[in-house]
Amino acid sequence: MLRHALWLSLLLTALPAAAETVLYAVSNRVHFTEGATGIWSNLYRVDPATGQFVLLAPVHVNGQTTVTIVTLAIHPKTDVVYAASGSRSPTSPSSLLVLDPRTGEAKVVGPIGHVVSDLAYTDDGRLYAWLPEENRLAQVDPATGGVKLLPPSGITGEPGGGGFVIDERGVGYVAATGGEGTLDRVDIKSGHATPGPRLTGAPFPAAISNLTFSPDGRMYAVNSNMGAPAATALVKIDPASGKVAQVGKLPNDAHALIFVPHDPLTMWLWIGAGIAVLVAIGGVVYRRRVARARQAHEG
pLDDT (tens digit, 9 = 90+) per residue, 49-82? Predict the structure, then answer.
């Protein structure tokens, strides 16, 4: 039995993914076929240490229709991943969706009715969006997609949207003035923005299109040159100084960026499989011992 316990211990210690979080990104690429314009939207897994990425799945609604995703946000209590579609999405433009990061399957919640560049949740489960064409915040109803507009922030944003994120203290950050602009603070109650430090070191001066925090509190962002196609990079930003450090390249036309915990069910499936293996081994050992005892008795 000691040997069996050792096997179970080895199985459990071989499950780092149970406590792991995965960084996901989505890219939206325009393509032309026989005079028609289409859009591919793809979900990627990204290494936050290097920026290396792996294609996971296309993003679809109902398994067929392409939808362009410009931002992702994760509910802090349920771990449900929400998304906002682009204003030129072929399906449900400027809408709130729920996305399954395991499959790329999206479900439409409802129309937001405004152009959104980034979504972010507070720790107590309130969802906010940055509206780049209006330079203001809006609180979003995750059940319907309906919005409550906050007053104008006072920021004059650059074309190409802006990254927005909320830290664990409820402080909002917005980078709406380009890759060489400022990282401003925005009060999520009043909507008023306070100028922050100037961004320095970004590979591309055009735009910071998405912001997110890692589980250990580091700020990551998508930095874009806003080209066609748009070259993009995964960067880290120091909120205090505005210093930007490149991590690596992202897929062209990358937008959305979010850290998602691994499904705990995976861990229990592995544990259940491990226990089943041990039970099977125990059964084999038991039968062998019974057979040996019989042979000894008959001998």
Answer: 999 999 999 999 987 788 999 999 999 999 999 9
Q: In 10 A of CB 272, how many CB atoms?
A: 10
- For residue 245, give the amino acid letter: A
Half-sphere exposure of 76 (CA within 13 A, CB side): 15
CA 140-55-114 angle, 5° bins: 20
pTM for the structure as a whole: 0.80
Q: Cβ atoms within 10 A of the Cβ of 68, count?
A: 27
What pairing do the DSSP bridges indicate for beta strands 60-61 and 105-111? parallel
Closest to 187 (Cα-Cα) out of 174, 177, 178? 174
- Per residue in 82-128, pLDDT (tens digit) is 999 999 898 899 999 999 998 999 999 999 999 999 999 999 999 99
Q: Which sign does the torsion angle of CA 59, 226, 211, 262 carry?
A: positive
Greater model confidence, 283 or 190: 190
Rounded CA gap, 280 and 1, in Å?
Answer: 13
Domain ranges of the chain: 1-20+265-299, 21-261
Q: In what order do the strands lie in the sheet with 21-33?
A: 53-58, 36-46, 21-33, 254-261
Distance CA(204)–CA(135), nearest Å, equals 22
Q: Is the pLDDT reported for residue 31 higher than 60?
A: no
What CATH number labels 21-261?
Answer: 2.120.10.80
Beta pairing partners, 130: 118, 137
